Amino acid sequence: MHPDFLRKLLRALSQPKHLKVDGLLSSGFYYAQNEKWEEAAVAENLAFFCIHRELVGAEAQAMHQLWKDQVSQWRKFKGHAIMLSSTAAKEMLQDRNYFDASKIYVTGLPRFDIGIKESKNSRCSLAQSIGHSLKKPVVLFSFPIATAQPLLRKTKGTFPEEGGFKLLFSSVHQVAARFARDNPAVPVIIRPKWYDGDWRVRIDREMQAVFGTNQNWPKNLSIVDNVGAQQLLQEAGLVISLNSTTGIEAIINSIPSILPHFFEASDTLVKHLLISQDTSPFYVARSEQDLEHYMNQYLNGALQPKMINSGFLEAVLGPSDGNASKRIEKIMISLTKQIGRSGNTRLA
User: Fold this and answer.
1) pLDDT the model gives residue 134
2) For an engineered disulfide with 302, which of 34, 284, 297, 338 has Cβ 3.0 to 4.6 Å away?
3) Residue 67 contacts residue 96 (beta carbons within 8 Å)
4) Do 107 and 324 meet the contact criterion of CB atoms below 8 Å apart?
5) Counting Cβ atoms within 10 Å, is residue 119 exposed (0-12), middle (13-18) or buried (19+)?
6) Do the Cβ atoms of 39 and 328 come closer than 8 Å?
7) If you write DSSP's letter for every residue of 59-77 in order, what string do you get?
């Protein structure tokens, strides 16, 4: 969109007779599609905030190692304030002088508020809503083969034919498929972010390796991308994930959580694991046999949720007291008032 058009649009929307908009919000500070909106908002004396939804769920060492060299390649944020989940993310941006440190806030993320609060309530029955019953579902949150490998992802895509967690992806998905086949009373759900394109091709390839044709897939196996992660977590009995906050959220919800750290994850790509130093809240599968063992333990009722300490959550998620939304609201109200009073759109 042309900058002049955006300015006129925001000017009109900020009028009392319309919506009286006094600010805008984005979910990614380096997303290219937001740049013109940031410029237009600042030019029209409207607040522009970013609640960044990434850079979360990783130990500080892993975050710095994997993304510190990417920071200089990100386009500069032109709004007023960035809100991040953790101190580790803020420190990484500060070390690279990405943005004024006084305008970067560590707030935690609202979606974890939901998990923390809902974990205290009784769980609704998602299993029945998607056609399952009996044992609580085993949920595998599928992962990209190029997860936590920004250079590989940039050059060869999310699902390269060579490199990445190729062997691990194949093994974990086939173990889940065999478990579904051998235990028809247990719902098994594979949840990719999207079940389309290369992701679908790769998952289907692993399913075919176990079942042959699609007609042989067991009825207790579901591959879904239209059910939210939070909803799945509310009903899951066991979660398997790699480099995903869903594994951490499972722990918050008192669900046994498995990290598959074998094949490439214990060899050439160990430095591309977001959590590897403190894995105490998880069941860590060091081999395919370990993964099968833990899943069988769950089947027999012998796999219990592990204890989690607040220090772990603080390190990988940031503030985890359920009040991220309140912190964000307070910051946004305060800065919006400052901008309106001063007319200084840069909050010098």
Assistant:
1) 54
2) 297
3) no
4) yes
5) middle
6) no
7) -HHHHHHHHHHHHTTSPPP
CB 113 within 8 A of CB 324: yes
Residue bearing tokens 């009286």: 20
Residues 128-154, mean pLDDT to the nearest whole number: 83
**CA 176 to CA 338: how far, in whole Å?**
53
Question: What's the per-residue H, E or C state across 197-265?
Answer: HHHHHHHHHHHHHHHCCHHHCCCCEEECCCCCHHHHHHHCCEEECCCCHHHHHHHHCCCCEEEECCHHH
The pLDDT value given to residue 279: 96
Kindly report the number of other CB atoms within 10 A of residue 200's CB atom.
15
Summary mean pLDDT of the chain: 91
The pLDDT tens digits of the residues spanning 40-57 come to 999 999 999 999 999 999
pTM for the whole thing?
0.88
Beta-carbon contacts of residue 110 (< 8 Å; ≥ 6 apart): 51, 324, 325, 328
- Per CATH, the homologous superfamily of domain 117-317 is Glycogen Phosphorylase B; (3.40.50.2000)
- Domain map of the chain by residue range? 3-108+321-342, 117-317
Mean pLDDT of the region 118-128: 49
Structure tokens at 219: 């009825």
The arithmetic mean of pLDDT across residues 189-202, rounded, is: 98
User: What is the residue type of 169?
Assistant: F
Superfamily of segment(s) 3-108+321-342: Glycogen Phosphorylase B; (3.40.50.2000)
Query: Which residue type sits at 109?
Result: L
The first and second tokens of residue 81, run together, are: 């304030």
Residues 222 and 214 sit within 8 Å (Cβ to Cβ): no
Q: For 230-246, how does the pLDDT look when each residue is reduced to its tens digit (9 = 90+)?
A: 899 989 999 999 999 99
Averaged pLDDT for residues 73-91: 95
